Amino acid sequence: MDLKNSLTSFDIFHPLTYYIPIIYFITRVLENFTNTSNFWTKVWNKIVDINDDDYTFKLYGTIIYTSLIYWIVGLLYFSMDVTQKPKSFRKYKTQPDANEPLDYKKILLALPLVLFNQLILNPIVTCIFVTIGRKTLSSAHIRYTTSFQQLMIDIIVYQLIYEACFYYAHRLFHHKYFYAKIHKVHHKFTAPVSLMATYAHPIEHIFANMLPIVIPISLLKLPISTSWIVMTLTTIATLGDHSGYHLPFLHSPQFHDWHHAKFSECYGAMGILDKFHGTSKNFEKAINSIRHRTIFSMKSVVELYPDDLIEKSNIEAKNSENKKIQ
Ligand SMILES: [Zn+2]
Ligand SMILES: [Zn+2]
Predict the structure, then answer these.
(1) If you measure from the C-alpha of residue 47 to the centroid of ligand 1, how many angstroms do you get, rounded to a whole number?
(2) Is residue 4 situated within a structural domain?
(3) What is the whole-number distance in angstroms between the Cα of residue 116 and the centre of ligand 1?
């Protein structure tokens, strides 16, 4: 029986890391056929054409773009919770029957804080970083797009630095002093809802949600075009992690879902530091860790890896050991 015990790169890095080279390859093939070139650079230039003032584009462009990603993707997940449709997607729920139906009172009570973080705090922090960033952020022209090879290196290194920042900030918020005063808010949802991903105390939103994105962007001096790509990756990953759905071809939410269900394990986003610090031991023993993978099938992880899988594999292992002894 195929039971994996360790993390594979597909569980660690976001699937977008693998889809970008595929998209790049398809684009190159199509460019060859149509005798054109630099398709994505042209697309980026069209976006910059909307307003090519450096400061305005970096500030307002980033605020508008990241908000659009958050609300469009978040509302898509949320519409599945509200309508309970499509029916065929119900099997992808990480915690079956949870949020069925949604607790609208809880959502309405949480919404003002989500709106504050998204519509007020995000623009303020972005404004501070773009303004002081004239010195710390990349000085590359807003029209600059990096090479494909550099883009891939940047995406991988960004995720590793993000993991370190997020893991330690998040773990600190689980110290009993900070937990009671700050992080408890975010854990009100034991079965998370995508749109409520940034339902967090404003201090946590700055230190655990925004800084882990800003720090690698500043350290790596990423140009604005690459910054938007990594911000898309993290936003989609965060919304997926809190969606309650383990959909095919997308990043597995099992790790963070376990964190919300159990509180005291799985603090990181990728799982590397949890493995290193031994803070995912119970998760690793559970069926959830076997299910923690990007699935390339329309079957759900429960269908692929049923609840009694661990039990069955233990029996199989015992039987084969007995045969060896005989
Ligand atoms: Zn937590
Ligand atoms: Zn969370």
Answers:
(1) 37
(2) no
(3) 20
Only one residue has tokens 């949802």, namely 189
Q: Ligand 1 centre from 275 Cα, in Å?
A: 17
Q: Is 132 exposed, middle or buried (0-12, 13-18, 19+ CB in 10 A)?
A: exposed
Nearest ligand to the C-alpha of residue 255? 2
Evaluate whether residue 1 is within a structural domain: no
The domain in which residue 67 lies consists of 9-325
Residue 3 domain-assigned (yes or no): no
- Against a cut of 0.70, is the pTM above it? yes
Tens digit of pLDDT at every position of the chain (326 positions): 455 555 565 567 888 899 999 999 999 999 999 999 999 999 999 999 999 999 999 999 999 999 999 999 999 999 999 998 899 999 999 888 777 888 889 899 999 999 999 999 999 999 998 988 776 677 889 999 999 999 999 999 999 999 999 999 999 999 999 999 999 999 988 878 888 899 999 999 999 999 999 999 999 999 999 999 999 999 999 999 999 999 999 999 999 999 988 888 999 999 999 999 999 999 998 988 889 989 899 999 999 998 877 666 556 656 666 666 66
114 in a structural domain? yes
Number of domains comprising the chain: 1
**Ligand 1 centroid to residue 5 C-alpha, Å:** 24
Q: What is the distance in A from the centroid of ligand 1 to the CA of 301?
A: 24
Taking the centre of ligand 2 as the mean of its atom positions, its distance from the CA of residue 265, in whole angstroms, is 12
Ligand nearest to the CA of 179: 1
- Ligand 1 centroid to Cα of residue 260, in Å, is 7
* φ, ψ (nearest 5 deg) of residue 248: -60, 145
Distance CA 296, CA 248 (A): 6
